[in-house]
């Protein structure tokens, strides 16, 4: 693969530079934020952690404090550092390939993870901690960070995609949201919304692969790549789904293009907060966006499964994600693995993924626990028992086939495909996806 070869060459050059410098220069550069837990404990073992999401440090800080209380004979000093997304992933890749300057533990975004599984994997398998809980977990989310029978990354959430409905608008339109079972039902409901209210039913993103086309094709057991990494972006399922998005805007006229291009933009937050649309398709972790950016919708939003393509079909998809790893470079690998397991695989760790971060934890056996169902800001904002919905769909989430070319697919979709099919209405979905697939295949050569 052309891009892979160039990447490996670049890594090799950097590794030589680091070696020539005697390894004194840390590959990490300047962190945006550094938090140290346990620095007052004598003889504590230092464990370093890199992340690209400052919020994640709250989870690890809590876990480190708990670890030191429960393991006074093996205390740790956790040094948690936050870096910009690109800088962290690039530096981590260089560090583990060169064997210098990397952390013990690191967060890796799902779309980047395949880059760290090339050649001889420089990450520690976590099988001894993962395998005992797989039958109590949404297994496909662990599969996302696995290769050749080894589980390298620990998921941060399921990222179950759901439909968020503005019940005030839906009631005004005369629509019972529980009557929306299939996407055909959704179109019919959308027509009532646009006929009887001043709102649109939905928005179709032009920069939102993660919250439009991808979850909708994943429902149908499709993807941009098959399980062998072969490009299937232009298959019939994907073309028909993109046609569905096009028709929602141009034929049925129940949707309009998302303000700001995606539903994680300031333009969209203001639009939605003012009642611009009756529904949003997004993962469970999007709840935090409502609370932070759409305060006027508190008490109005209800959560339901995604509409299925046919009755009995899948009603969710796992989107987004972060896999946390232990690097083979770690001088305290066993301790780092045990700490990570307690932080994110244990029952208490999974409960804290919800309580601390507001994420849907990968272990579904915690979804009925008293701690998960305690009142909090999410239950105050939304009018549903969130985890009852998730228990309905937990077995309807397919694995994603992510490769080192997944970022290229997303870039091509946002740059050209949505421009030609959705913005300009100048190309058919079949033509646009075939063109995109050809470009990705060229990158793989």
From TrEMBL:
Keywords: Cell membrane, Lipoprotein, Membrane, Palmitate, Signal. Residues 420-445 are annotated as: Disordered. It holds the Pfam family SBP_bac_1. The lineage of its organism: Bacteria, Bacillati, Bacillota, Bacilli, Bacillales. PANTHER family: ARABINOSE-BINDING PROTEIN-RELATED (PTHR43649), POLYGALACTURONAN_RHAMNOGALACTURONAN-BINDING PROTEIN YTCQ (PTHR43649:SF33). Residues 420-429 have a biased composition (Polar residues). Residues 1-19 form the signal peptide. SUPFAM superfamilies: Periplasmic binding protein-like II. Residues 436-445 have a biased composition (Basic and acidic residues). The keyword S-adenosyl-L-methionine does not apply. It comes from the Bacteria. It comes from Virgibacillus natechei. This is Arabinosaccharide transport system substrate-binding protein.
